[in-house]
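Journal club prep — side note

Before the paper discussion, L.F. wants everyone to see what a predicted structure for a comparable chain looks like in token form. Sequence:
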Amino acid sequence: METKKNDKVNLERQKGVFLQLGLVIVLALCLIAFEWSSSSRKVSAFDAVTEEVMEEEMIPITEMEQPEPEAPPEVPKVTEIFEIVDDDVAIENEILFEDDEADFDEEIQMYDFEVTEEQEEEEEQIFVIVEDMPTFHGGDVDKFRDWVQSRVKYPQIAAENGIQGRVFIMFVVEPDGSVSNVTILRSVDPALDNEAKRVVESSPKWVPGKQRGAPVRVRFSMPINFQLQ
């Protein structure tokens, strides 16, 4: 019995198709192999940043050119020109000296100049602490402050406006015991300042202070209280 071949299952018919498919697959594998080798090495972001930093840090060193010192300006040389004159040439400009010789018979008048020297009076030194301090009615500055407090009159304007406070005042006890140079160190109100100054200036004489047995000027400062009752 003779065997018959079926054309549907005959592989020889599709031999060209399989050949083309195989070539396509091989070509695709080759392309994948090339792409894999080229992309295997990836540049990381850190390497890129490092290269940029290195490029920024490499700054070329520049040397400052020092300016050359300027040469000092040349000073023009002054040359004196001398003219040689013959001995026979007469000089036209003759210098005439009038009253060349003094007449010794004439009287020489002498003027008397009075030299006046201004004598500046130096202010005596003012002490703060001396060997014998000034006393007021047998007491010290605290007793004088009590005397001032008992004689101050509260200004009406300050009382109406409710102004009160402490006025610091400074004064000098002179060698004769009088009080001078009354000044306000710290002010509260013009009305209170003027009243405190008025009472201190009306002080009777003190027993002056002494330094090495001689009366001297002594400075004091004290507060005067103004308080409404």
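L.F.'s comment for the group: Residues 115-122 have pLDDT under 50 and may be disordered. Keep this in mind when we get to the figures.
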